[in-house]
């Protein structure tokens, strides 16, 4: 080989023989991976396959037990993320890590504060640099916006900008599209292409195989902790990829035979939510959900869905009336609402769904602390809770070494399965499912859909909120579009395409 | 267990568990480490370390000293439990000190003013103390819930206020009388019906152990059962681990803050009882101050665990007792303060080290099992 050829073909990242063990689990086993400079390299694999762990190793958050990391041809050892950052590697995590009550500028400089003369913070320079990066890569970010006012798509771009600001040339994105609707995904992919054109290298993880095929230059499939294939996206289909990952076929969320009854399970009347500064976030929303019905709400994140859900759960003050069955529950506490049979799969599993530092069986109790099989009178029923946790682990295929491990030790998708299993327990009459399959692999997605369908056939009413339009169209009996806190359209899920729904969500084509 | 990704604070406050023998290794390591540091200090000050420790141990093992140690430990234990109740919910009740002093003062005055049949008299004094402790703590709780004032700030302020309030109340025009045989003033002595007799249970000495040592044990058991076995305890720990998740699960966090703070204050109210009802029978200015802070140190030392706290309290008390012999040997008793400080610091460091050791040890164990041909169960299947 000639000199010149060697230098241009030096991989940006090479991982050789990486092994990482956790108590009871081998997360990565003898993994080898080579990522070319200027490529978008996708990593796919089922929940718990070891993708996040591998990326945390490359980012210096975890130390490998064995193996070698080479960056741009030279071997490196990372003791912490700052070592990785110094080597030009940056990571955007599966779960966002921005501080809500700070501005974009403050978030970006947090941890790498610019100094003027060594002491004073130099925000002027930082602001200019952020603007410049934002313009170069078309990220469209205002450094002075508050993070809490940004939608998920914008937050994601802030995370990316934060990484670029620290000088990263190799970007790791862990499930960046899980929270995005299709338009935002397109925008993100546009940004990524821009970055690649500037010579950056991108490694990204996703469970959405169509996206992977459309954006990646190379794909590596991980299964049970080890690499099973490296494929060229031009030469495979989504179906083949899924088979490589899990050895099963792509599921479909189709549910056509209707189980909708005439009995209204939940009725929401003119519910409005205001922010502390009196902005109207949810504006007079009304709908009925009947027993056996799935009502889907489509919308770009940040249009009031989260607030609407929290209002129904009683976690946030709201005007209007909420009726469950025959009873007006508007003034009830969250606990009383849950006891009355409302299940809740929250959109942010880390903030609202789990006690990360508690074992799985204690997490089974969370949200059900007044009900069987978790308690007997004022006492915790350990035996009952533990047995029922085992049932959930079994039925929902939660991959875990046991029910005594902390929730934080589960992979993202397996945490989600545990929550879904918990919230479907105890025969709820009404279920709020916010992104029920966010972050779970195609196989587990099919299983969760099956569970939802079975419960719906048995009379469960479901409020479904999802960024996955196929899921929304496939599962919903009724579909409504929310925009800026208002229901702006009713859509027939039988006759709508994801494209039409997508444009209705941005307000482009009212009532598709 | 997710020790690898847990935060330092979680490990510090005992929210990440250590398994088996390792949970003993950490405190032992800490004590050894503190011993080494103290030895160095002794060497520098020109005293022979081994001999000094020998003197302390010998003195501490005498029957009379054991009684003293148990009595100190009873008080310290209650103080640490009061602090630990808050810790488990991420509430930092720095005001245990003020709550205890005010409670002891008022309870002593009330106890001295009435005469009731025996058990009733005692029960009433204890209840008054708990009520006053809880009442004083409730100010901080309300400030936090209604106004968002950090309990750290408010309880520090309330400590200062309790000091002045105590001084104002302990005046001959109000609650105080002259203490016979001294120029000290204190509350009117509690009649015999309100006194709790000591127990001469240590052979070889007439000195008596506080009867209320039983109260401390009962409080420890209640603490354990309440936190680990009841719904209320679950809610309290859940709130400490993640407030947002607790809210979503239906916990009324504001109510929890108030209840936890009241419980912590009530426990603080008990701190002065063993001494008040067991030996002094009257509250005077020589009641010890700073017990709340000792409680913080011991709660850290005992990792908020009822048994751990008991060991911490005994160790602390032993050091206090045996320091009094040092002067006789012309060694500065302040050496004990240095020791106690180092122990707390060492505990923080030792737990961190042992946690890290556990992570690597466990990984080594897994790899050995795998090498030994035990079938590896990949990607999360049970092993
Ligand atoms: N800190 C930890 N302690 C113990 N086990 C862990 C820890 N982190 C991950 N694991 C285990 O390692 C395995 C791989 O987890 P990882 O998070 O890498 O999966 P993943 O491929 O990212 O899955 P997902 O698609 O669900 O996010 C899982 O079995 C998980 O339970
Ligand atoms: Mg992951």
TrEMBL record, chain B:
User: Which Pfam families would you find in this protein's record?
Assistant: BPD_transp_2 (PF02653)
Where does the record place it? Cell membrane
**InterPro entries, per the entry:** ABC_transp_permease
GO terms (molecular function) for this protein are: transmembrane transporter activity
Q: Which domain of life is it from?
A: Bacteria
> What's its membrane topology?
Multi-pass membrane protein
Q: Where are the transmembrane segments?
A: 21-45, 65-87, 99-116, 122-143, 152-170, 209-227, 257-277, 283-302, 309-329, 335-354
GO CC term, one of those recorded? plasma membrane
Write the record's keywords in alphabetical order, separated by commas.
Cell membrane, Membrane, Transmembrane, Transmembrane helix
Q: Report what the protein is called.
A: ABC transporter permease
